[in-house]
Amino acid sequence: MTDFQSLRINGDRLMQRIEDLATIGPHEGTGSCRLALTDEDRDGRDLVVTWMKDLGLEITIDGIGNVIATRPGILDGPPTLTGSHIDTVATGGRYDGNLGVLAGIEMIETLVENDISTRYPIGVAFFTDEEGARFPPDMLGSLVYVGGLALEQALEVEGIDGAILGEELDRIGYRGAAPCPGIPPRAFIELHIEQGPLLEDEGITIGAVTGVQGISWTEYSIKGQSNHAGTTPMHLRHDAGYVAARIATEARDITERMGGRQVATVGRMQFQPDLVNVVAREAQLTVDLRNTDESLLANAENQMKSCISSLAESEGVTIDSRSLARFEPVVFDTEVVDIISETCSQLGHSSMTMPSGAGHDAQMLARVCPTGMIFVPSQNGISHNPSEHTDREDLIAGANILLQSILTLDAKDLPGVEQ
Ligand code: HGY
Ligand code: MN
Ligand code: MN
User: Fold this and answer.
1) Which of 66, 146, 318, 384 is buried deepest, with most CB atoms within 10 A?
2) CA of 143, nearest ligand number
3) Which residue has the CA at smallest separation from atom 6 of ligand 1?
4) d(CA 37, CA 51)
């Protein structure tokens, strides 16, 4: 085995690929809009698969459109895998997900050009529909990959635009033949931007991520009665718009009552008939609740449930709720987290351990193999916003930590995997 510790990725090549991928589905300056399974997602997939093919990697596409590109090792067996996603939210940045996939490709190209063999196969993947913004839940592709959602059920998911997931997958030509669930990798490490302010606030370059907080997405559909805005006395109204607004303020109130790490977001809200002088007959909204602690997340959900039932009664409306996503908090493999931290000190980068506020494919892979994540700072903690930015030297530092961590994992016999 060559001494690999002096190996570094080619930063210019990584930055160029980030730039090239960002030309597909550009949005408001430096941002990206490549919602899952749209034409833009297809074009992004085609470009990344071309880069994978140019490296001579063996490419598999499974029934939900997850793409895994693998370089053989000296020994056979499941790959030590890295990867993330290349679909984005509609007002996304160019680093969310894309960094992890492109750094994985750069890592493998560095091994190829230095003619370094690894013990086991090394792979890089992009998973379908990580964002869940068009087709809920988020991390849909990796959830199917690890057997957490049946393929048939996933293919039937209806998007917020009324499209059916399986039909869109066929339309863009990415329904593959490889089976779902997929073969568990030896281990999985995902490089990702932090998407929050902690690393920048601490002046730290790398986050060795300890786990991912729990996620609860619910869609509420409220049915009231449309009526005249001027003539209807207040006590006779069944105002779906008012009820939606009360649910939204309750989401914020729950976080203020609970404090700690409880967060809540109302990202979508619609009224019908949506006219200035008509009491809303119907309304729909989504509530995203998250917490690092499962019992606290359940507590937040219960507070919302009691608010919903008292509003239905007091306002004389019906409120139907539909769960769009529900994932418990995940703790990553401590050995993988330690490898990432040790690699940072070997390469001279500051690091700290931290939980992830955002959901990631790694939280699904953690169900089937030793898993960890590497974070790099987000400027002003901004993400899911076209102005999302991470400095070049931090991106390159993250990619080098990924390279060295994956090679360290390759050299190790992993308990429960090799013996
Ligand atoms: O929802 C999330 O946290 C991720 O961006 N999909
Ligand atoms: Mn992401
Ligand atoms: Mn995201």
Assistant:
1) 66
2) 1
3) 131
4) 20
288 alpha carbon, closest ligand: 1
**For the domain bounded by 214-327, which CATH number is listed?**
3.30.70.360
Residue 195 identity: Q
Q: Parse the chain into domains and list their residue ranges.
A: 11-212+329-411, 214-327
Pocket of ligand 1 from Cβ distances under 6 Å: 130-132, 138, 358-359
- Dist. CA 320 → ligand 3 center (Å): 27
What is the sign of the dihedral through the CA atoms of 260, 131, 397 and 341?
A: positive
Q: What spacing in Å lies between the alpha carbon of 145 and ligand 2's midpoint?
A: 17
Q: What is the pTM of this model?
A: 0.96
- The β-bridge partners of 264 are 289
Ligand 1 nearest atom to the CA of residue 130, by list position = 6
* Backbone torsion region of residue 380, taken as left when φ is above 0, otherwise alpha when ψ lies between -120 and 50, otherwise beta: left
Q: Which atom of ligand 1 is nearest to the CA of 288?
A: 1
CATH number for the 11-212+329-411 domain, one of 3.40.1280.10, 3.30.450.20, 3.40.630.10, 3.20.20.140?
3.40.630.10
Kind and range of the H or E run holding 190: strand 187-193
